[in-house]
């Protein structure tokens, strides 16, 4: 089955999928979002600056290795600019800086959810599970035993403190 993509209103991507009788039906953004997830290689390798950066990393570190044998190179790698280049040509630096664009595109590829009063946090941490403490760990709940603030066995209880003195 061949899919054709076109831009709908407001720049939204619409997919036209042919069915058996030759008609086409439109799918919304949410149904094709999973198929159109961004690939990390689009940000980490494909841009010209990424290729230049990744090619410069082994060239720089080859120079660092050669500086052990050649004195003129050793003089360069003792400078403050070489210290800056150490950070710039560290592979994880390139990965993190180039990966920021991928992370943004990956997050934007998710369909918009119903953002409630929690500002979107309820999509990550459901309120029904994390909004209340377990009764055994709540010091204001009488069912928590000795931990209960009103328990005479609790060392934080006012009665317990006055009885000990």
Structure in words:
The chain is elongated. Strands 1-2-3 form a 3-stranded antiparallel beta sheet. The chain folds into 3 domains: 30 residues, no CATH class; 68 residues; 44 residues, no CATH class. The chain is built from 9 helices and 3 strands, in the order E-E-E-H-H-H-H-H-H-H-H-H. Helices cover 46% and strands 8% of the residues. It has 165 residues and is mainly α.
Features:
3 domains; mainly alpha; elongated; 9 helices; disordered N terminus; three-stranded antiparallel β-sheet; 3 strands; 165 residues
Concise summary:
The protein is about 45% helix and about 10% strand. It has a three-stranded antiparallel β-sheet. It folds into three domains: about 5-35, no CATH class; about 40-110; about 120-165, no CATH class.
Rg value: 30 Å
Biggest sheet architecture: 3 strands, antiparallel
Total number of beta strands: 3
The total of helices stands at: 9
Mean pLDDT: 74
Q: Runs with pLDDT <50, length 5+?
A: 1-19
Distance between the termini: 84 Å
Structural category: mainly alpha
Strand content: 5-15%
The percentage helix is 40-55%
Q: Characterize the quaternary organization of these chains.
A: single chain
Q: What is the general shape?
A: elongated
Helix-strand pattern, N to C? EEEHHHHHHHHH
User: How many structurally independent domains?
Assistant: 3
> Which strands sit side by side, in order, in the main sheet?
1-2-3
